[in-house]
Amino acid sequence: xxxxxxxxxxxIFSKVLRAGRRTYFFDVRxxxxxxxxxxxxxxxxxxxEDGTFYFKKHKIYLYxxxxxxxxENLAEMTKYIIDEKGSEVISEIHDKDFKAKKAEEDKKSxxxxxxxxxxxxxxxxxx
Length: 127
Known about the structure:
This protein is an alpha+beta fold. The chain is built from three helices and four strands.
């Protein structure tokens, strides 16, 4: 019986995904009853003003009875994002010209709105 208690919450199988400042940990662990469940942890690195750093961690526990629905929802959400925005990352961090491109898009959008008649110059004298 003592040996079984030592296996509680033991990591059975693990994988690590490093993604910039974030690291994801996928760990298969064991319950008291000997069944398995999955923990997904996110660890994100932050820097203090004095140059030291710290990590913020978040963890979810995923049990077998939720695997099917979780997988379906994850697949649906990721497909929606890719279908709507494509697989290219749109981010200031990933694109050095992000601000310039965003400003250009905004300028085009404004001129498009003006030419479509959405904006009307109104003088207070007209009222």
